[in-house]
Amino acid sequence: MKGYAGTLLRVNLSEDKVTKEDISDSIRKEYLGGRGFAIKLLWDEVRNADPLSEYNKLIFSTGPLSGQLLPSAGKMVIASKSPLTGGYGDGNIGTMASVYLKKAGYDIFVAEGKSEKPCYLLIADENIKIMDATDLWGKDSFETQDLLEKQHGKNSGILVIGPAGENLIPISTVMSQKGRSGGRPGMGAVMGSKKLKAVVIKGTKSVSNFDDDKLREIGKKGYEEIKGKEHYNFWMRQGTMQAFEWCNENACLPTYNFREGVFEFSKEMDGYVLEKLHVARKGCPMCNMQCGHVIKDPSGQQAELDYENVGMLGPNIGLRNLPQVALLNRLADEWGLDTISLGSCIGFLMEASEKGLIPEKIKWGDFEAAQKLTVEIGRGEGLGKLVSHGVKAAAETLGKGSQKWAMQVKGLEISAYNCHACPGMALAFATSPIGAHHKDAWIISWEIANDRFSYDKSKVEKLIEFQRIRGGFFESATVCRLPWVEVSFGIHWYPEYLEAITGVKWSWDDLYKMGDRIYNLIRAFWIREVPQFGRKWDYPPERWFEEAQSEGKVKGMKLDRRKYEQMLSWYYELRGWDQNGIPLKETLEDLGLKEVSREIV
Ligand code: SF4
Which of 313, 450, 464, 601 has the most Cβ atoms closer than 10 angstroms to its Cβ? Predict the structure, then answer.
């Protein structure tokens, strides 16, 4: 099948061994790429491994759309068994590393084993070298990127970790291009555990597509369509920060550790304030609607902002100053910490302090304290140590009822949407296959625009449809979903792109089935790897069931537990899982996963 480099590259860091394997057509058809390739490999090869041991594997995986001259196609997926959750973990990242990995002749690169000393990998077409990184160890992700770029040239794709990944902090990510970040469930720590500071990729080849002329033509049309969209200009002014005003108005902005959904100082830091402070734009390769807005932080340095990091490092910790949020965001990126989890961890500590559960006095909105905590979390020291393994572990240590307001699902911190009055989005967080993250099913905008307060079966059906498209197709293709989500780019383009690239006609039914195969295999991985995994892993935090919001248009509202249970039961039924969330034998067999059913059913 065309459109793939066709090769999987393995580097075993314990044995200094490099191997290359063909990727069969059947694997390409059944799993497409990206997340699909990653879970297939993890299911087959990582069993009962400690996530930070040499037995875990770190996978960098592209798909047929990655690196093509198509809208927002500069993405790759980074996946592994997660040290934060113990289950399947992944994240997508926009990076030139995705483009150059395919140009070097590989669809997937797998890091195995563990180096004895700090190293980085240089992948340059057929030449693979394990390089000494002793001088880079301890440096932040920005400086590391600069040094490697200086040494290997700008025509390189570079993936790095910061000190947080080196220190095996489970909320650390992989960074690229000084601002792109991927792998929320601790992919940075997995890389650090292998003593792998960076990967530098250079490639000079081109991937052979089925119909290059057609691809050029429809790719160009796609870019033009995006620019002509009604919402394009506003998007270019605010990017994802447009969600800030919307969330505040709809009372779902994470505020004071998700206690509230409305921030009284929102006007001081919303998308319109960002517009005035904007000095530059950044984003991923191949994108003509780049969403990273750069402003100057209080130290005069440039720092990038988007909605998620502003929501979590702003209102969620009571901070109302955008340049200060930008500085925190930059600091987190330099350390290689996930900004969503970081905002949740700091919010958790501020609430613990307010409730008198810890002796330290940290007030909501205390910028200096937040800076200090960011560094302490990155080091795993001081008060930061308590939350450096995420809020689930912190609440288990602290006790005193804090589990109820440790804002996580399956161990991954919730991203920036308060769901006291958004049952569909609460279910989306609860059933996301990596733990609480919005990327698989951002149903909240559909939910608020349609029937916000209903717990109907039709909402559950819509949620699964979103998971199939976003978590199944986009994460495996691998391409950014935001053109479709944010400016209504025609979804019909994607099967057309796939056909021009691979020569294979995929209907959406085929792609949905492929997405279901991936979801079921991920579910099977959780069942195999996490003892007693089942229904109780699929609930949002108690706070949303027990404490009503006190402000905004949903004042007095909280989730209805009985109705949530019914939604979850419908979700299982529609997925073909039993009422403990275990896939049924016939569901797995229908997806071609008979071998899997023998292990878990
Ligand atoms: S829309 Fe944003 S996240 Fe998506 S590819 Fe463009 S810059 Fe990257």
Answer: 313
State the Cα–Cα distance between residues 476 and 95, nearest whole angstrom. 16
The torsion of the CA quartet 428, 524, 511, 447, rounded to 10 degrees, works out to -10
Mutate which of 291, 305, 489 for ligand 1? The one with the most ligand atoms within 8 Å of its CB, which is 291
Q: Which atom of ligand 1 is nearest to the CA of 285?
A: 5
Q: What is the pLDDT of residue 281?
A: 95
Ligand 1 proximity of 488 Cβ (cutoff 6 Å): no
Q: How many other CB atoms sit within 10 Å of the CB of residue 330?
A: 24
Mean pLDDT of 57-81: 97
pLDDT digits (tens, 9 = 90+) for 132-171: 999 999 999 999 999 999 999 999 999 999 999 999 999 9
pTM surpassing 0.90? yes
Question: Given a cut of 90, is residue 601 above it in pLDDT?
Answer: no
The first and second tokens of residue 411, run together, are 């161990």
Which residues have CB under 8 Å from 78's CB, separation 6+? 58, 59, 60, 61, 90, 91, 92, 93, 159, 174, 182, 183, 187
Q: What is each CA distance from 154 to 43, 100, 139, 142, 256, in whole angstroms?
A: 36, 12, 20, 14, 42
Which ligand 1 atom is at minimum distance from the Cα of 283? 7
Residue 315, token pair as written in the block: 């209102």
Q: Indicate whether residue 480 lines ligand 1 (CB < 6 A).
A: yes
The reply to whether ligand 1 has any atom less than 6 angstroms from the CB of 287 is yes
Mean pLDDT of the chain: 97
Cβ of 94 closer than 6 Å to ligand 1, yes or no, is yes
Q: What letter does residue 266 receive in the DSSP assignment?
A: G
- In degrees and rounded to multiples of 5, residue 308 shows phi and psi of -60, -45
Closest ligand 1 atom to 292 CA: 7
Residue reference for tokens 């989005």: 425
